[in-house]
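Form 7-S
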Amino acid sequence: MLKVSLVSILIVVSTVWWLEERPQLTATRLAVEEALINHGYLPPPEPEHPAYRFPSCDGIYGLIERSDSAGSYPKYEAIQGLIDAPVDYPRYEGVSGCIDRGDMNGGETYALTTPNQNQEAKKQNVTTFSIDVDTASYANIRRLIGVGKAVPPNAVRIEEMINYFRYNYAEPTEGRPLAIETNIGSCPWDEGKNLVHIGLQAKKVSPGKIPPLNLVLLVDVSGSMESADKLPLLRAALREFVGSLRKEDRLSLVTYAGSAGGGFLALLVMAFLVPRRTPVPLDDQGWPSTFIRALKNKSAIAYSLGYLVHTWEMFTLRSWVVTFLVFTAAQEGGPPNFLIPTVIAMLMELTGTASSVFGNEVAIRVGRRRWILMVMFASMAMGAIVGFSAGAGYGVAATICLIYNVLIYADSASLTAGAVGTAEPGRRGATLAVHGMLGYGGGFLGPLFLGVILDVLGGETVMNWGIAFAHVSVIMVIGPLAIKLLKPGELPGDKV
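Output:
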């Protein structure tokens, strides 16, 4: 006898019997029986039998055609809009797809499934089938029954219930990717017809031989995702999933919705889901020894000093670019209608992020120290002329600002990665604290210095803007000197 026949009959009989013994789950039993009828595993009931009437479905949308070759199912013809099915059979009002009513199961919806039509082998002697395995329906039905909810008929997928179980097929041999098992037997519910069972087994891979995983999950954290079957379900799933990760695996969460919820979700993941690692024992802990040791790390400090001057020039340009471009446009009577100063500032933010990521990839391939020095010298040259471009016209000044911004950001990620990567194990937090203190200290001083210089020079002129921005190039000398004198180490994977 076919394996699939035995298993499917067992599942069907046991499920129906179990539900028959529980009167409180009448709705669930009817839903399962209806799904079995739809898939052809049970004969359809008499049209007037009250037990098989569906609840009225309002607002069903899509295009449905329910029929089989024998005509044993009611035919839903070219349903596109609003029709009424025959009164004798379940009445579907307002059909244009088929979803279950929201009040049946807490708002969960399921697409209507229809059985495949019978095909004559003489006319259709070639068939195809999918090798992927879906198993969600079994677990979903079990969940619904466990919480005492009715099972919507279209939530039942017979093939997924069969696929849920393991059948211990033999693994492929002789280097083959798949092992195939086939059986044929008579159909237990349709005399004169046969069932063909095809089982596929891929080669099982030991967990220790799986390459390191680098997983990126995109999560919607908007308000519409707060229902129990959305974000709360995701949190529960992540809790189970993260426990199976190895130390070499990486999991990243990217959230969207423009809300603070994304950061909060990431915080929850980091706090509760990321596997804990045993801290590296330190011979000297606490303040101030930890920070003193971080300050004595020449490699990390070199990158942090570079980050100081980097944020100095980055925040200087970011804080003053709109004012500078407004002054430049005023020399010509006003900026263009589209590329106004605020639009230029927005483009700078967008291109800056891409430049930072791209710059770190380049640093890995050409050498971190080499790349940082190249970027710093280029931005120093551009900083020396950006202020004077006000005399060349708005278009020229805006273009130079955009190019200057790309150069500034090009070593941003490279510097931060260098500081963290060269930190002592167990002191990366302290090292990053020093890195941020120096960096954002520069971010505070840079815009302040430019404003003071403008005031001292007597206000806004092309010459004064040129001198004010040029001071950044002078400050930038600190970065290359730190890199050359302290010779910070490269990171694993960087080209030396």
